[in-house]
Specification:
Number of strands: 0
Strand content: under 5%
Number of helices: 4
Distance between the termini: 31 Å
Order of helices and strands: HHHH
Radius of gyration: 19 Å
Largest sheet: none
Shape: elongated
Structural class: mainly alpha
Amino acid sequence: MTPPRQVERLRAFGRERARQIFGATPLPDTREERQRMASDWLTLLVGRALARVADARSLTEQAERREIEDPQRDGIYDDLAQALRAEIVAWETAQNILGGWEVVHGLIDDPDSCAVTDSATCQSRPI
């Protein structure tokens, strides 16, 4: 399957969402606490992404099973299209998480970094 082309747009959305969340959240004082906070955040989001993957897999299996049971049945392509849409949503969710992680990862070592801002001076600086 060829992934959707809007990778950078999806990751930018994830970065912006992380900036909104962590820009309004007081960060812990120590690196260890920030690392634990980042791990908790990532664990929650990866759990959601895995649930989307499981949903997509379930829909794919259901579509395949229905196709085997009755290859002439109306709606086979609708089932497969629904499964494909679920796979795309799971993939897009993963891209959002990767973008957000760029911001969060930068905050672990440098809580005063530009990671939570989106100004022109900070964009040229790596996170």
